[in-house]
Every structure is written in structure tokens, then in C-alpha cells.
Amino acid sequence: MNKLIIFPLVLLSMLLSIAQSSYADNTVRISERSCKFTVDIPQGWERIPTAAIKEKIEKVPVSLALYPKDQTSYFSDNYILISVLPSIKALSNFSFKNIIENVNKMNEESRKIQTNSLKIEYDKTENYIADGHYHISTKMIIHKDSVGMSCMQDLLLTKFGYISVSCYAKNGYAQKELGEMAQLISKNIKVEPDYQYSEPKKQSVFSLRNIGISVGIGLVVFVVITLLGKKKK
């Protein structure tokens, strides 16, 4: 074979190898019983080891956790938790509008758990559709004793539940930046076709008893309470 042809082929092979290696380093595949998808890790962030997650968060299912590379410890200031929250019934049985209404209802219900040492301030809930994926975003600030933490949760609807992207910040991010980061990661999530949510042609009547949406919203509050209540690592 002509050397002029061999060299470009070798160079192309090297570039493809580098590209595949980069993809493997920055993209994480999540395979849960109720959903399968990939997540692109944003630049400047790294994965928190599974052992560290389990040590810090014992009872909350977390598929992936991230923290900024320049941060001295995993959960000291800013971090991101990605969880799969299955619903009791398939979300594809219900319209996006009805699901949004019930998320708002559950947010109102969670206000009732406030105590003298715990206060939850909801900013607002927004919904949007990006690349065929349906999202519900909720901003809140949690105060527990003398510790305050901003939280932005982006719920990505799937056929059998939700992918929750929850960004937490104490000092590193303003609310706007926190929301942008949550939505950036959510938009970079690629759900496998068999697990994608789509609105039904015939819409079902929605009720809180029909679906476990309270689990999804409740977990956000529970995660924050759990993390703030433990000694930082």
C-alpha cells in the first residue's frame, strides 16, 4: 500500500482512539431497573466514589454524584446527585400538564414539614421540553439550624418514573448558576428509547394515589436533611 495512504489511515486511527477514550472518560452509563441512560460529566467536575456516597448518604438511592475538581472535599460546598426515582404506575399514562400540577401540589405538601430548625423556601417551579424530553425544575433554599443550602432539582420524565438531577450549593454558585448547571446536565442525559416518556393519546385521570410522585419530591428534601444533618467529610 502506498505510504501516502498509510500515514493518513494511521493518523485517523489514532484520532478515533483518542476520541473514544475521551468519550469513555466523560460519559457515564447508568443502568437501573426502571431506566437506562447516559450522562455527560460537565467540564470541571468529577465523579464522587461510590464508597464515599454510601458513607454519606445511607438510605437514599444515588446513581451518580459529582463535585467540582477544585473543591477540597466531596460534600463541603457544591455537589450534584443524580437519582432514578421509579413511579408506581408508568408516567406515559398521564399528560405532562397533569404531572406538573401534581408536582406543584407535592411541593405545597412538603412545606408542612417545616420545624423550628428546618425551613424550606421554594423559589419557583418551571417546566420545559428539550430535544423531546420533558423536564420539571424546582428551585428551593433549605435552612437547617445555622446551615443554609440552595437546591435546584430538575426532574426529567421517563416512561417509568423520573431522573432527578439535584444540584446543591452553599458558597460556590448563585441560584441562577445552580439552575443552569442542573439544566445543562439534564439536557446532556440521553435516555434509551424504550424508557423515554411520551404523552398518551388518551389521557388518564391523575391522582396522587395513582402515582408515586411524592417519593420523588420527598427524596429531595430527605437528601438535603440527611446531608446537612451529618458531619461533613
Core attributes:
3-stranded antiparallel sheet; 10 strands; globular; 7-stranded antiparallel sheet; 5 helices; alpha+beta; 233 residues
Concise summary:
The protein is of the alpha+beta class.
Can you give a write-up of this model?
The chain is an alpha+beta fold and 233 residues long. It has helices at 3-26, 50-56, 96-110, 175-187, 213-229, and strands spanning 27-31, 36-40, 45-47, 64-68, 79-86, 118-130, 133-144, 147-158, 161-169, 190-191. The strands form two sheets. It has a seven-stranded antiparallel β-sheet, with helices on both faces. α3 runs parallel beside α5.
Give the arrangement of secondary structure elements.
Layout: H1 3-26, E1 27-31, E2 36-40, E3 45-47, H2 50-56, E4 64-68, E5 79-86, H3 96-110, E6 118-130, E7 133-144, E8 147-158, E9 161-169, H4 175-187, E10 190-191, H5 213-229
Antiparallel strand pairs: 1-2, 2-10, 3-4, 4-5, 5-9, 6-7, 7-8, 8-9
Helix pairs in contact: 3-5
